[in-house]
């Protein structure tokens, strides 16, 4: 089998099937139909004269030939991505596309306004924003810039810390009698908050779990219980009251990150400079010091909401 004779598009098919273990998964990854993947795999196997995958009830398993070809595909993909990053890193234009990844709460509570201001300043830069809490891979060009709360940014990326994010306990102003809690589902990937709730003895009182911070916010606002939320987001909500001081153990750093190959790209540098300045100006909001907190000196799980409307968070 001469791997060099296999077109790159066919290599991508093999890699996608090997990674996902199914034709349907490969189709989703590549953005094509299941039938197209099936047809192209069959044509490739016929042309090479070898079977690349064994079809099992549990999925598609690479044969020795398929494993060899998928390894080659991964290597070629890494080489292409590296070349693309290096070429983009030499791009001095303040135009083109810039892919940004961030979380749903940061986009809603902070970044939409900031990105709008950036685009007014640089109208020829097209922003593509991926809202996701999943692990990001800037080496594979999932995005060019990541804006993330993290206390341990990946060593493979470079960037700068642009602030600190505070969190506190909030409750609905209209459902203050509840002793229930809203908490993170494990799929949210927030083990620090899960451990905090366990240490506070709140697991038995958690009646509602959800896999996004915006879902937790909605649950608290609906009166399903009190919950820990980012101050920059919850302090804007007139129907929420803050019932604790910001929690030091849940405070985290806010980082702007990019791949080293992209650090000299003009549009990446422009976004870094703009957001560094604008987010520094919003530190009071990020730290929760713009709104007065109402909190009594009891453990968080025993605190009661304030007795009057003026003592809670203000927008």
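^ Assign residues to that structure.
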């Amino acid at each position: 089998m001469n791997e060099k004779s296999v077109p790159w598009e066919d290599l991508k098919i093999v890699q996608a099937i090997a990674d996902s273990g199914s034709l349907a998964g490969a189709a989703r990854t590549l953005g094509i139909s299941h039938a197209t993947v099936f047809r192209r795999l069959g044509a490739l196997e016929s042309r090479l004269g070898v079977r690349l995958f064994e079809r099992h009830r549990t999925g598609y398993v690479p044969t020795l030939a398929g494993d060899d070809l998928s390894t080659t595909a991964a290597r070629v993909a890494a080489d292409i991505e590296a070349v693309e990053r290096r070429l983009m890193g030499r791009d001095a234009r303040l135009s083109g596309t810039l892919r940004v990844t961030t979380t749903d709460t940061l986009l809603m509570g902070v970044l939409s306004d900031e990105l709008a201001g950036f685009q007014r300043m640089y109208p020829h830069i097209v922003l593509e924003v991926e809202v996701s809490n999943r692990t990001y891979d800037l080496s594979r060009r999932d995005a060019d810039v990541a804006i993330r709360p993290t206390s341990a940014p990946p060593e493979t990326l470079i960037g700068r810390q642009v602030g600190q994010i505070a969190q506190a306990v909030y409750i609905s102003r209209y459902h203050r009698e509840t002793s229930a809690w809203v908490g993170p589902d494990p799929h949210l990937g927030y083990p620090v908050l899960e451990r905090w709730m366990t240490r506070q003895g709140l697991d038995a009182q958690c009646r509602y779990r959800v896999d996004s911070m915006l879902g937790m916010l909605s649950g608290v606002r609906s009166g399903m219980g009190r919950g820990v939320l980012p101050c920059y987001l919850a302090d804007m909500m007139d129907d929420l009251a803050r019932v604790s001081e910001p929690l030091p153990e849940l405070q985290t750093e806010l980082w702007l990150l990019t791949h080293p190959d992209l650090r000299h790209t003009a549009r990446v540098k422009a976004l870094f400079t703009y957001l560094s300045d604008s987010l520094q100006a919003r530190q009071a909001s990020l730290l929760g010091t713009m709104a007065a907190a109402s909190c009594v000196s009891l453990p968080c799980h025993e605190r009661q909401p304030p007795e009057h409307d003026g003592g809670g968070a203000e927008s």
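The chain has two domains: 3-89, 93-315.
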